[in-house]
Amino acid sequence: DPDSGDNGLVLYSLVSGQTDEFDIDEHTGQIFTVSVAGKAGTFNLEVQAADQGTTSLTARTTVNVTVDSSSSSNIVTLVLNQKISVVEKYRDEVQRVLEDKLEWNVYMVNIYSKESETKARSSTDETQVNIIAFDEAYQEVSAAEVERKLKEQRAAIELELEKVFSASVSVAVEEAEAAPASSELVAAIVLGVLLAATCVAFLAYILLDLRRKRKNKKQDLVKKVEITEGIDNPWAVDKNGSLKSLDKPEYMD
């Protein structure tokens, strides 16, 4: 809106459609999901833009949002050494090459870069392409099977893509990141570690206690030996086996 002041201040809103699943930023008009879990198909949203003048002017349009039902567990990520803008430009050709070499129907879920958008579009480093493959019955092909086939056909795919991009192309399969441990698993690990530490501490205490008792017992035995060696035993026997005198030694008086 080229007007100034309140007449040029435009706010956006969802006026009809599946507004429980989506929301909109009133200042930018950006639409985002709230809850589409377990849902698939096309959602029709009617969006209104209105200025804030004394007599508000409005305009409306319909936005159709398609939610894909594909399971994310079967998404495979390809890494191409091409600009994201170039991959987007030849999106259909890339899909055709993949379908021809994999011999499955291929759906390109997303094309993106891990770099910032501005840097990515001027960079030649990497572009990520998320794909899902479907067999003739339109059933999803497992990610493991797609990765296996991609590695087998890698050279042929690169050769065909070089014709599309008119440049040298490398294609790699990005390894999936390990799933984060569930809270239950983390709790079990923590409890296991604590239990193990408790057991170790208990065993250490027992061993130290035994060593202390053995040391004290040894000291007592040494004292008894010293006492025995320091006095005449009134019950001792002589070399002939007869009892010695039972008289009390004078130095014990």
Could you characterize the architecture of this molecule?
By secondary structure, the chain is α+β, with helices and mostly antiparallel strands. The protein has three domains: 6-67, Cadherins (Immunoglobulin-like, Sandwich); 76-174, Alpha-Beta Plaits (2-Layer Sandwich); 179-222. The chain has six helices and nine strands; from the N terminus they run E-E-E-E-E-E-H-H-E-H-E-H-H-E-H. The chain has helices at residues 84-89, 91-102, 117-121, 143-152, 154-165, 183-230, and strands at residues 10-17, 22-24, 31-33, 41-51, 58-67, 76-80, 105-112, 127-134, 171-174. It has a four-stranded antiparallel β-sheet. The termini are far apart. The model has no long low-confidence stretch (mean pLDDT 78).
Instruction: List the uncertain runs.
Output: none
Number of E strands: 9
Order of helices and strands: EEEEEEHHEHEHHEH
Q: In percent terms, what proportion of residues is strand?
A: 15-25%
Which strand order spans the largest sheet, edge to edge or round the barrel? 7-8-6-9
Task: Please indicate the count of domains.
Answer: 3
The total of helices stands at 6
**Rg (C-alpha, Å):** 42 Å
What is the third-level CATH name, the topology of the largest domain? Alpha-Beta Plaits
- Quick one: biggest sheet? 4 strands, antiparallel
| Helix/strand class | alpha+beta
Helical fraction = 25-40%
Distance between the termini: 123 Å
Specify the overall morphology: flat
**Taking all residues together, what is the mean pLDDT?**
78
What is the second-level CATH architecture of the largest domain? 2-Layer Sandwich
The top level CATH class name of the largest domain: Alpha Beta
